Structures are given as structure tokens and as C-alpha cells.
Amino acid sequence: MSTTTESTLSFKLQCSKLLDGLKQVSGVIENAQVMQILSCVKFTLSPGRFMLVASDSDIQITCEVEDDLLNLDASVSFAVPGKKLFEICRSLPNGETLTFKLAGDWLQVSTSNTKFKLVTMSAEDFPIHDFKPDHILSLQSTVFSRALTYTSFAMAVHDVRQFLNGLLLDIQSDSLRFVSTDGHRLALYEVDNISTNFSGRFIMPRKAVNELVKLIRYGSDSFNVELSEKMIRVESGGFALTTTLIKGQYPDYTRLLPKESQNAALVPVAPLKSALMRAAILSQERFKAVRLNFEAATLNLYAENSQREQVHEKVDLDQSASSGDIAFNLNYLLDVLNVLESLSVSVSYGTPKQAVVLKPTDVESVLFIIMPLTL
Questions:
Q1: Label partner for 165 (CA 20 to 30 A): which of 91, 111, 313, 352?
Q2: For the structural domain made of 135-255, what CATH number should be given?
Q3: Would you say 187 and 151 are in contact if contact means Cβ atoms under 8 Å apart?
């Protein structure tokens, strides 16, 4: 039921449990909303548990939390300013018990030493996505987590080509590919040996993907991915994220995938990462260009800025490589190295005008492509 009378409802929650729930949903709450209700979190209280719902109209996150302190005989729903309640809970000491009094349009939140009074809104005014899935697939949490980690960083940001501002799920009857690109680099993670009775391409918006990355740790051992023509919902453990899909035709990324064997070098990740970070100090501010020169068992890195200041770094390769020379934005390479867990990365290269392909040595199902720069 929704509270519409002046009767007072009292209940208690553990502050830590409420804060944990608010952390899951608060990422989509924006204070400046066309609809004031969307600055709120919708509460639904029931015996021994509560549900939170937050939305920005495109993305909706729900989470369900158990709390033994919640001793009610019936369900109650209301909406309260989400960011304010989150800041209240975050400011309180650990271990606090919160006492709530809901009366009319007001919610009083108190501890032994503090009282807050927040305005409420009717839960009936809170918009809920009406979603009916056409397809459902299940993924292990480790697989889903890896897929997002390896691909989410390469999505475009505010690109006029809206379809690049998201993550592609390319689903075939026996495989699933997670693909992202901003036009300068591409990340791909492939899941084999899955069984689906459908195929299709679905583009999940960047903001929803980034929220999922944060929500992964709240999930269970598996994730259910539910899809329709216009929407997607990802559910695991006590949370669910629902979002509208990006319209548009994703580019044919398969044209960028390597078809011919190139020269390959096995490079230690940690020394390369350190060398790139030092090279960034004197690289061009705009393009962050670095030139990589492969020569026998050594990788030489060169960078120079507009003042002609220079840096030269040497990295010992794990094995000898063919000679090669290529330049690109060093931040793109650092983004790849930052998500790798392997000690070494395979770097495939050809002519200075050909893209570089990177593959970690411990995961066969992922690859990264970086387009070169002309110096």
C-alpha cells in the first residue's frame, strides 16, 4: 500500500544495510530532474526486508535488502529524496540503528543524537519500467565481470554517433561477443559454448554499463541477461538493472579483426606500464603520442612534446621479436594494460599504418586493437 493518510508509521533499519542498498541504486539519481520524483528513491517495506528503486527515466536499478529489524505486518511504499538520504546514512557512525517515523508527507529519520526530517512523495507517482523479455541467457559471474572489465573502457564518450556510446552484445546461437570501440581502439571479449535459441545485436548505453561495473560485486554466482527489442535487464543476487537500448546500426567491427599473421612480440606488462607512464611526462599534451620500436630483444619507447623535450625508454622483451616501428596514443595502451591480470601481453604489429593487436597471455577470448598515429 502507499501512505496517503496522516497516521504515523514507525520502523527501524540498520544504517549499514540501508547504506549498502543506497550505494547500489544512487548512481542513477540526479538532483536536476525534469520529473521531481526521479530525484527520489522509492521504498517498499515488507516484513524483514525492503526494496529500493531509483531511476533516471532511461536506467532503473532495484535492490532488495534483508533486515531483521524491520518488523511490519504489511507492505508500505513511499518515495524520499535519494541523494539526501544517502548523505545522511554516509555521515553517521558505523553500527547506528535508524528509527523512522512516516507521517503524511514527512519522514523523520533519527538516531540517539540526531534527527532529520525529509519530505516524501507518493510511491504511486514513481515511474516503473514495463519490461517483458523476449530472450534470456545466463552467464557465470566471473565471465560477466571479465567481459565488462575488458571492454567497458573503450566505449566512446559523447560521440555524435550514438551507437558508439555503448557496449555491443553480439549474440549468435553458440557464442556471445562483448564489443566496444570509440573509432580509435576496439576491445572484444568472446564467450564460447553458450546455448541460445536466438541471435541479434543489442547496444547497452555507456552509463548503464558503468553502473553494472559497480554492481558486479553485489551479484551472485550467475547473472541473468533478459532482452527485448528495446530494453535489457541484468539481474543477479538482490539487484536488477533495466535500461533502454541505444538505437542504431553498430559498425561492422569484424573488418578490423586481424586476418593475417603479423609480427608478434611478448612484452612484460609491469615494465611496459611503468615506461609508458614515464613517457607520458614529456609526450604531446593533446595526442599523447609514443613511438614503439621493436629491435631483437628490446622495445624502445620514444616520446617528444611541442618544446622538443624528449624521453627514451627501454624495455626488455620476454623473447626476441622482428623489427618494427609504430606510434599511437599511449593512453590507449595504458587503458589496456590497466585491465590485464597477466604478466605478459602479446603485441602484434605490421607496418606503421597498420593497427596493433594486443592479447593477454592468460586469456584467449579477449583482444584489443589500437589504431596507429602518423608522426
A1: 352
A2: 3.10.150.10
A3: yes
Architecture of domain 8-125: Roll (3.10)
Give the chain's length. Answer: 375
Give residue 5's pLDDT. Answer: 46
From-to residues of CATH 3.10.150.10 in the chain? 8-125, 135-255, 261-370
Measured between alpha carbons, how far is 105 from 82 in angstroms, rounded to an integer? 15
For residue 144, CA distances in Å to 138, 171, 190 come to: 9, 14, 11
d(CA 85, CA 118): 8
φ, ψ of residue 87 to 5 degrees: the values are: -65, -35
Q: Is the pLDDT of residue 1 over 80?
A: no
Residue 45's φ and ψ, nearest 5 degrees, are: -100, 140
How far is 121 from 36, CA to CA, in rounded Å?
9
Please, are residues 290 and 272 in contact by the beta-carbon 8 Å criterion? no
Q: Report pLDDT digits (tens) over 227-257.
A: 999 999 999 999 999 999 999 999 999 998 8
What is the amino acid identity at position 295? Answer: E
Cell triple for 257:
579483426
Judged against a pLDDT cut of 80, whether residue 128 lies above it is answered with yes
Using DSSP, state whether 98 is helix, strand or coil. Answer: strand
Residue 370 has pLDDT above 70, yes or no: yes
Tracing cell 533519527 back to the chain, one arrives at 110
Over residues 192-218, the mean pLDDT reads: 93
C-alpha cell at 361: 597471455
Place of cell 504489511: 74
Grid cell 573509432 — which residue?
183
How far is 152 from 172, CA to CA, in rounded Å?
A: 21
At 131-185, the pLDDT tens digits run: 999 999 999 999 999 999 999 999 999 999 999 999 999 999 889 999 999 999 9
At which residue does the C-alpha cell 555503448 appear? 166
- What CATH class does 261-370 carry? alpha beta
CA terminus-to-terminus distance, the chain: 66
Contacts of 289 (CB under 8 A, 6+ apart): 283, 303, 327, 328, 329, 330, 373, 375
Contact 101, 63 (CB under 8 A): no
- Helices 82-91 and 15-25: crossing angle in degrees, nearest 10, is 140
* Residues 278-326 pLDDT 10s: 999 999 888 899 999 999 999 999 999 999 999 999 999 998 889 999 9
